[in-house]
Write a structure and sequence with these properties.
Elements lengths: L5 H14 L9 H13 L1 H6 L3 H10 L5 H24 L8 E3 L3 H7 L5 H10 L2 E5 L2 E9 L2 E4 L2
Antiparallel strand pairs: 1-3, 2-3, 3-4
């Protein structure tokens, strides 16, 4: 890949996309192929994910008669979750990334269209978000004695 580590390659890819005006997921096909291979073959990674990935896949495919559109929907949902993580990684100071409106189009149509509320909340909690109310998730900046200070 050229760099000393996969995480460095990924970071460089994200920075290239940002310089092009696209703060989004990494589009490098060779890096995506390497990541795909790791996701498929690395059983230690499967354990580290603590079955979350499998739960998300199962949730997104459960009861779907036609798998092709269900898989496309899951791919879009994973890209949107990755995009949220990328925004926090590259631009953590940007105020617009501190709140996720759970009534927004992307959340309702892309995420909730294929994943349950419980799994979505669990995924966003791993990024540092907490449920503020029934319409918003907010980024939690610190925890002390079980309390979370939320910036609004």
């Amino acid at each position: 890949m050229g760099s000393s580590s996969l995480s460095e390659d990924y970071r460089l890819c994200l920075e290239r996309e940002l310089r092009r005006g696209r703060a989004g997921v990494c589009g490098d096909p060779s890096l995506r192929a390497v990541l795909w291979q790791i996701l498929v073959e690395d059983f230690d990674l499967h354990g580290a994910l603590q079955d979350d990935a499998l739960a998300l896949l199962t949730d997104g495919l459960w009861g779907r008669a036609d798998l092709a559109p269900a898989l496309r929907g899951l791919a879009r949902a994973f890209e949107l979750l990755e995009l949220a993580a990328v925004h926090l990684y590259l631009l953590p100071w940007r105020k617009e990334f501190t709140t996720i409106k759970t009534f927004s189009g992307g959340y309702v149509h892309v995420l909730k269209g294929v994943l349950s509320d419980d799994l979505l909340l669990k995924s966003f909690q791993k990024m540092g978000y907490v449920r503020r109310d029934s319409h918003r998730l907010m980024l939690c900046w610190g925890q002390s004695a079980g309390l979370c200070r939320v910036h609004s």
